[in-house]
From TrEMBL:
Lineage: Bacteria, Bacillati, Chloroflexota, Chloroflexia, Chloroflexales
Top-level taxon: Bacteria
Record InterPro entries: DNA-bd_HTH_TetR-type_CS (IPR023772), Homeodomain-like_sf (IPR009057), HTH-type_Tx_Regulator (IPR050624), HTH_TetR (IPR001647), MftR_C (IPR041347)
Species per Swiss-Prot/TrEMBL record: Kouleothrix aurantiaca
Entry keyword ATP-binding: no
Signal peptide (UniProt feature, chain positions): none
Record-given protein name: Transcriptional regulator
DNA-binding is among the record's keywords: yes
Key words of the record: DNA-binding
Length: 202
C-alpha cells in the first residue's frame, strides 16, 4: 500500500472513530438529560448507542468522560482562536474577546441542565474543579505561544488565572439567574470589565 493510500485509510479510520465517539457522547448526554446522571449506567449508554461495553471503553474511560468531552471540544476550539490573536494586543483584551465570542453561543437551557448535571455529584464537582485547573494551564501555555518573551510569563500566568476565574464566576451567575437573565456574552463582558477596572484602580 502506497503512502497516499495509507494516509487516506488512516484519515477514514480517524473520521470513523470521531463519528463513533460523538455518537456515544450524544447518546450519553441524551440519557443524562432524560434520566439524570446517577440513574444512567455505563451499560445503558452502551446498549442505547448500539455498542458493547468493551467498545465503550475504547472511547471513554468512564461515564464521566461522556459529559466532559463536550467541554473539551469547545475549549480546544477556543485555544485555537487565542493562538491566532495578534501579539500587538493586550493579552487580557485578546482573551476577553475570544471568550465572549466562543462561549456566547452555548448560552441555552441545555447548557444550564448540563451545568446542573456537573454539580449533581461529588465526583463530578471534583472533576469540574480539575477541568478548570487544566483550562487555566492550557490558556497559559497558549498565551506563551503568542507572547513569547520570557519576562512576560508571570503576567501571562496571572492573566490566565484571572480569565478562567471570570469565566467561572460569569457562568455561575448566568446559570443561577435563570432564563430571564442577561445574555451570557453580556455577563462575561461585564465580568471582564470589572476585572480590568479593579486592576486599574489599584
Amino acid at each position: 500500500m502506497g503512502a497516499k493510500a495509507t494516509e487516506i485509510t488512516e484519515s477514514l479510520r480517524e473520521r470513523k472513530r470521531r463519528e463513533t465517539q460523538q455518537h456515544i457522547a450524544e447518546t450519553g448526554l441524551r440519557l443524562f438529560l432524560a434520566n439524570g446522571y446517577e440513574n444512567t449506567t455505563l451499560d445503558t449508554i452502551a446498549a442505547e448507542a448500539g455498542i458493547s461495553r468493551r467498545t465503550f471503553f475504547s472511547y471513554f474511560k468512564s461515564k464521566e468522560d461522556v459529559l466532559f468531552v463536550w467541554q473539551s471540544e469547545a475549549w480546544n476550539a477556543l485555544w485555537a482562536d487565542v493562538l491566532a490573536v495578534s501579539p500587538d494586543e493586550h493579552p487580557l483584551d485578546a482573551v476577553r474577546d475570544v471568550f465572549v465570542r466562543h462561549l456566547a453561543p452555548y448560552a441555552n437551557e441545555e447548557m444550564r441542565v448540563i451545568d446542573r448535571l456537573l454539580r449533581s455529584s461529588e465526583s463530578l464537582r471534583a472533576r469540574k474543579q480539575v477541568a478548570y485547573e487544566e483550562y487555566e494551564q492550557a490558556l497559559f501555555a497558549t498565551l506563551c505561544e503568542v507572547w513569547r518573551q520570557p519576562q512576560r510569563r508571570p503576567v501571562l500566568r496571572m492573566v490566565a488565572m484571572a480569565c478562567i476565574g471570570v469565566v467561572r464566576l460569569s457562568l455561575d451567575a448566568w446559570n443561577q439567574q435563570g432564563a430571564a437573565n442577561k445574555p451570557l456574552a453580556e455577563v462575561l463582558q461585564e465580568g471582564f470589565e470589572s476585572l480590568k477596572s479593579g486592576i486599574q484602580e489599584r
